[in-house]
Write a structure and sequence with these properties.
By secondary structure, the protein is of the alpha/beta class. Helix content is 49%, strand content 8%. A 6-stranded mixed sheet has the order 5-4-3-6-7-8, with helices on both faces. Helix 5 (119-133) packs antiparallel against helix 6 and helix 17 packs antiparallel against helix 18.
């Protein structure tokens, strides 16, 4: 329902001048309907009651006429031609799902056992369920008590978040308290780094009243802030009630809370796309074309006109060669619309052949494994995004030097391009590794520098097998079992976070 309301609020027409055709269409419809509904002349010389009894057929007023169906079909076609739309075409080089920054309260109150096993554990389980349900989306993690600290940046890897979450306890936090304002500022700064609009989720048991003002101000911004309350129902929420239109979600045993969070994040993503003037509008006029198809069923009614249209359509369908039948779809959909339908069905090669939009054509080829063809398409465009996409395609095709050149061109066109900067560094590292491995594997025989002599060891017992007994000293002081090693990793993660959080405070406060 929220998606429908968002789309209805953003509804507008790309080609509104087509609606001018509604005026003559309605005039013709009204004129034709009056002629169709008019009665014939009354018979003369016969009493009216006898004439009514002797008249064959329905002399009453019909509710529907053939012209009604024709007029409705034409109206729908005019509306479709006007280009109704309520959404933007997302950038194919950016994430298609809204990023989410999760701020987890790590305090003594979160260890209360009123939500078995305790509030902290339930919050951890719920966050991991949320990350699993958002497969492919980026999620960041922030922990806060008296200070706020970034635990993990925006990432698609749930294993990183899982290891960090399990190590978060009140003991690793350097300062006691519940400074949610600091966590809010840190979460906002994390979302600024993302090119895709996102949302912030606070997982807490209660909000301090001194933080309500900061959240009330944040509610007026473009980034939505959600609250997942990890406390029993009926717990005090005075501070949350002070925030205008606060989206407070109660932690549940099922996935009801997760669906509410995902809907709110998706709504924020759609709203941000609508405000991005750099993106093209997604023409949805083709959807009205399907509403015209049921009108064809009325043409089977006896006494209705335009039955000849069905015969004409059948004749055209039977007389058109097989190769031309496939082109009938061009009457209803543009090449880019056909390409988008194939792309959404994950038929990337067909989409690459259908698209005329160069960026979408190149992306479809890239997704279909046609890296060389995709790189050629991207190379013809003079934008930073196209150069970045060319670099990715050439990297996948193991053309590392051309990929480096493409990333450098992207940075020259747009110096503030962190993704291109990162990929450039990674590609250079790959190239160095490949060249070093090639040099290490060179025996020198091609250059005339081979081995001086070949010497075989064990000349007295050629081919003799040698055995050496080995037993793993499980109790030895330097060795650990797998279970002991895993426990030490968890402990080390907690020590690592504690040390890092302390260093954050030393370096200048909250990080």
């Amino acid at each position: 329902m929220s998606a429908f309301l968002d789309g209805l609020a953003a509804l507008h027409l790309l080609r509104p001048y087509w609606l001018i055709g509604l005026v003559p269409m309605m005039a013709l419809w009204w004129s034709a309907r009056r002629r169709s509904s008019g009665k014939g002349p009354d018979p003369t010389g016969i009493a009216p009651h006898l004439a009514s009894a002797l008249t064959v057929g329905d002399s009453g007023t019909r509710r529907l006429y053939a012209i009604d169906g024709v007029a409705l079909a034409v109206v729908l076609m005019l509306l479709a031609a006007s280009g109704p739309t309520w959404s933007r075409v997302p950038n194919p080089l950016l994430a298609q799902t809204a990023p989410l920054v999760v701020a987890l309260e790590v305090t003594r109150s979160m260890e209360a056992p009123d939500l078995p096993p305790n509030r902290q554990e339930r919050a951890r389980f719920k966050i991991m369920d949320l990350v699993a349900s958002r497969a492919g989306a980026r999620t960041a993690l922030i922990a806060y008590a008296g200070t706020a600290h970034r635990v993990a940046p925006l990432t698609e890897d749930p294993n990183i978040l899982r290891a960090m979450l399990e190590a978060l306890t009140p003991e690793v936090m350097p300062v006691e308290g519940d400074n949610a304002t600091a966590a809010l500022a840190l979460a906002q700064a994390e979302l600024v780094k993302s090119d895709t609009p996102g949302a912030i989720l606070f997982v807490l048991d209660a909000l301090n009243g001194s933080d309500a003002a900061a959240f009330a101000q944040a509610a007026q911004g473009d980034v939505p802030v959600l609250f997942l309350v990890a406390a029993p129902e009926g717990s005090p929420r005075e501070a949350l009630d002070q925030i205008p239109e606060a989206q407070v979600i109660q932690l549940t045993a099922d996935d009801t809370d997760l669906r509410q969070i995902e809907r709110a994040a998706a709504s924020a993503y759609r709203a941000a796309l609508l405000g991005d003037e750099r993106l093209d509008w997604d023409d949805r006029g083709w959807m009205l074309g399907w509403l015209i198809v049921p009108l064809l069923l009325f043409w089977f009614r006896r006494g209705w006109t335009m039955r000849w249209a069905l015969l004409l359509a059948a004749g055209l369908g039977g007389g058109v060669p097989g190769t031309a039948k496939a082109d009938v779809i061009d009457w209803f959909f543009t090449p880019d619309q056909q390409g988008m339908m194939a792309y959404r069905d994950k038929e990337y090669r067909e989409a690459g052949e259908a698209f005329q939009h160069p960026m979408w054509r190149g992306l479809s080829m890239f997704r279909g494994g046609q890296y060389s063809e995709a790189a050629d398409v991207f190379a013809r465009m003079d934008t930073a995004e196209a150069a970045f996409a060319e670099g990715m395609a050439r990297t996948r095709n193991r053309e590392y030097r051309p990929a480096i050149a493409a990333y450098e061109r992207a940075l020259s066109l747009q110096p503030d391009f962190p993704e291109a900067d990162w990929n450039l560094a990674v590609t250079r590292a790959i190239l160095d590794y490949v060249e070093d491995a090639r040099e290490a594997g060179d025996t020198g025989e091609e250059a005339g520098i081979g081995a001086d002599d070949v010497v075989f060891d064990n000349t007295e017992k050629k081919g003799a097998d040698t055995e050496k007994e080995y037993s793993e000293p499980t109790d030895a002081p330097g060795l650990q079992s797998t279970e002991q090693w895993m426990r030490s990793v968890d402990t080390n993660m907690g020590d690592f976070l504690r040390t890092r959080f302390l260093q954050d405070n030393v370096d200048g406060g909250t990080q």
